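Biopolymer transporter ExbB: structure, please.
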Amino acid sequence: MPSRNFSALALIALFFVWMTSGVMAQAPKGTPATGAPAAAASSAAPAEENPYAAALTLEGFVQRTGVMAYPLIALSMITAFFIVLFTFTVRQGTVVSDAFMNSADALIRKQDYLGLLAVCNRRNECIARITAKTLDFATRNPTASFEEVKEVTEAEGNRQSSLMLARIAYLGDVGAVAPMLGLLGTTLGMITTFHEISATEYGGSNQLGLAQGVSEALFCTASGLAIGIPALIFYSIFRGKVNRLISEMEAATTHIMALLAVQYKRAARAAAGRPE
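Here you go.
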C-alpha cells in the first residue's frame, strides 16, 4: 500500500510538471510572412521562436511575473517543503504503533500504571500522549470516577485529532492563496498595460504591445494555478490519510479505555468486599 501511494504521488507530480512546462514553453504563432525579408528575419533571430522558454529560468520568470514573482516562488518552495514533510511524518508510526499497544495492554493488565506512564513519556505518538494525559489525571485524582477519566481521555483525543488536521491545513491554505496571488499579478499587469496604451497613440505597434502585456499578465495566473492545483491535490491525499489515522487512534483509545474500565470494576468490587 505505501508503494502505491508513492507511485500515485509521483505520477501526479510528473503530470503537473509536464503540463506546466508545456504551457510555458509554447511559442505564440505569429502572422505568416512572405518573401525574402521574412526568411532573413527568422534566420537572424532564432531565439525569438520560443519567447516563453526564457520564463523557465528564474530570471525570466521574475521578468514575466513582475513583483508577484517573489511571493509565488516562496509559495512554491513552501508547497514542496510541506509535501516532503507530510510524506514522511503523516504515517501510522507517529500516531499509534503495535509496540506501544502491546506494552500498554500488558502493563494495564498488571496494573503497573507508573510503568505505563514511563513508557508514554518515552514514546512520541499521539496515542502515547493521550494515554499519558489519562494516567496523569487518574493518578493525581485517585477518587475520580471512570466517567471523569473517560472525559479527560476524549478531550485529549479530540485535541490530538485537531492538531493533526491543523498541520496539513497549511497545504490547503497555500492551494487557496497561490491562485489569488496569480490573479492579483494578472490584474496589476493589465492595469499597467492599459495605462501605457492610453498614454500613447493607439496604433499597430501598440496593439502588439497590448497583446504582449496581456500575455505576460496572464502568466501570473498560470503560475498561481500551477502552484495551487498540486497543493490542493496533495492536501486532499494527506487529509484522507489523516482521517484514516484518526480512526485508528480512536480505536486504540477505545481499547485502552476498555482495559481501564475492567480494572476500575475490579477495584470497585475489591472495595465492596465482593469476589471478582
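Notes: Residues 67-267 form one domain.
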